[in-house]
Amino acid sequence: MAQYLISVLHDAAELATDAEMAAIDVFNEGLRADGHWVFAGGLASPDSATVVDARAGGPIYTDGPYLESKEFVIGFWIVEAPHLDVALRLAGNGSRACNRRVELRPFLDA
Amino acid sequence: MTGVQEALTRVHREEWARVVATLARRYGDLDLAEEMAAEAFAAAVERWPADGVPPAPGAWLTTTAHRKAIDRLRREARRDEKHREALMLSGTPEPLGVIDDDRLRLVFTCCHPALAMEARVGLTLRMVGGLTVSEIAHAFLVQETAMGQRITRAKAKIKAARIPYGVPLRDDLPARVTGVLAVLYLIFNEGYLASGPGAGAVRADLTAEAIRLTRLVHALLPADGEATGLLALMLLTEARRPARVSASGELVTLAEQDRGAWDRALIAEGHALVRARLAAGEAPGRYQILAAINAVHTDARDVRDTDWSQILALYDQLVRVDPSPIVRLNRAIAVAELDGPEVALAEIAGLPLAEYHAYHAVRADLLRRTGRSTESREAYDRAIALSGNTAETAHLIRRRDQLGAP
Fold it and tell me: Which ranges carry the DUF6596 domain (chain B) (predicted)?
């Protein structure tokens, strides 16, 4: 089994609608029932981010995200799957549930 | 060629994919599979001329490759066991979908939709076709280093993302076969109308390889209508190859080809496949319709005998499956034969194909037939500027110059 990160991509300020939230709940339940669930979470908007750099001594804080871009990550799932085809199917179902594009990436093998 | 060399060439063509595929299943590592298969063939090149060709060359190669793989793994044994275990083998879906064949798994792995199209093409030709990286790079007119990197990256992604070494499950199969066929068709088309001025007009090695791989997929998935359709399409197209380029290296259009030079055996085989699909009575997909169109063309002993109304009916069917501008452009050629060039010109006006050489070539021909020489010449100029194939450029220049001085 391997773990995959499914990042949810978004390009506007508004949050998920009630219908989307309900679909996400159904999807999450399915992940748990089928043994794919590891963790998931939604993120506050990029302007709530702070970049921290302590490479040269005391940390320097910079207000805002490290990358200014039209699209950003608003949430993610971490799922467990035996191989990419299963992970792709989960990512497809996740994208449909939350009604947004997602990016699928494997974790490095431990 | 000596008997041994001939045997080596033949065995390489016939057994390469099988050896690679068997090793890939056993060790779950495409890199290892490829390297050990290459070493086994190298050993054969060294040993067979002295020892003679073994009675079962394929088995000899597989055994030799396995031995080499085991030697290699022993030498690397101290390398993290966990790392090896983590390779794709552990992620293989078991039981496999519909068919269990190592070569089919290899085809589906190389043509996985999570890989970029160029990577799929390169990887398929390398792993399944056994072409060298330099041959593949030459065929697609890219630097050898670039093609090498593309293939290496694809293999790295297969490992890191755990692209399974397997045939997809039944639910995913139709969509994934479509991707496999698209890769094979791309390889065929690159061979049939090579895209660069440096290449020969036709790359017979590539069309042959595409046909061989499609035969393999068709043999492994005989019930798949589109696999059958694509094979038929390739055979009927390939059958016309001997008549397609003139002695002076100029492209000869379908209407002007010497039909006596067509390969009757390939045509007979293609027709039989098309008939088999018709008899199946299922709604045909894109490749089956294209094959049927080619069957009508190759049925006509003379271009004047061409059944254009049937071709138009097939294009109408194709537009419903694939309403792309290129299909509509090709449909217009049949329209021109039935309703005249003016009607066809109206049909292609405004198609979003301004950067596509064939659009201007078709337009030029239709304008010439309506007597609009000046516009025709402009269209030929545009087509010539966009065409990359030497034989096609030569044909277009001659046609333009036949229009006489402006």
Answer: 176-276
The C-alpha atoms of residue B205 and residue B226 are separated, in whole angstroms, by 23
DSSP tag of B129? T
Inter-chain CB proximity A85 and B83 less than 8 Å: no
In this complex, is the C-beta atom of A106 within 8 Å of any C-beta atom belonging to chain B?
Answer: yes
Give the separation between CA A76 and CA A24, rounded to whole angstroms. Answer: 11
Q: What is the ipTM of this complex?
A: 0.84
Return the pLDDT at B270: 98
CA distance A49 to chain B (A): 29
Tell me the one-letter amino acid at B86.
Answer: A
B163-179 b/e (C-beta count within 10 Å ≥ 16 → b): bbbbbbbeebbeebbbb
Judged by CB atoms closer than 8 Å, whether chains meet at B164 and A87 is answered as no
B111: left (phi over 0), alpha (psi -120 to 50) or beta: alpha
CB B346 within 8 A of CB B355: no
Query: Which residues is A78 bridged to in the sheet?
Result: A5, A39
Burial of B205 (0-12, 13-18, 19+ CB in 10 A): middle
Instruction: Please report how the helices B225-238 and B286-299 are oriented relative to each other, as an axis angle in degrees rounded to 10.
Output: 30
Question: Which segment of B36-50, B183-197, B293-307 scores lowest on mean pLDDT?
Answer: B183-197
How far is the C-alpha of B242 from the C-alpha of A75, rounded, in Å? Answer: 58
Cis peptide before B95 (omega within 30 of 0): yes
When scoring B94, B112, B162 by the number of chain A Cβ atoms within 10 A, the one with the most, hence best to mutate, is: B162
pLDDT digits (tens, 9 = 90+) for B3-34: 888 889 889 988 898 899 999 888 888 899 99
Could you give the CA distance from residue A4 to residue B333 in angstroms, rounded to a whole number? 50
